[in-house]
Write a structure and sequence with these properties.
Layout: H1 2-20, H2 25-42, H3 47-51, H4 53-73
Length: 74
């Protein structure tokens, strides 16, 4: 269940990145962090980030706010 959640977050980030055409370096940073987080779920590597659920919810809130901002742009 946790891996599925992380993969869906990764896909969400990727779709937003493609929508912005990698214009935002912050979004690129979020994507890299999410990618490391997903890798760490399979390989026990980036333990602090994968263990903290607040990081996931924080990223989700950031993505939601960026999505709302993108809606106001168009």
């Amino acid at each position: 269940r946790s891996l599925l959640l992380k993969v869906s977050f990764l896909l969400l980030n990727l779709s937003i990145l493609l929508a912005f055409n990698f214009s935002s370096s912050f979004m690129l940073f979020l994507f890299v962090v999410d990618f490391l987080d997903s890798v760490s779920c399979i390989i026990n590597w980036f333990d602090i980030l994968s263990a903290s659920s607040w990081a996931v919810s924080f990223r989700f809130l950031l993505l939601l706010s960026l999505y709302v901002q993108s809606l106001t742009l168009f």
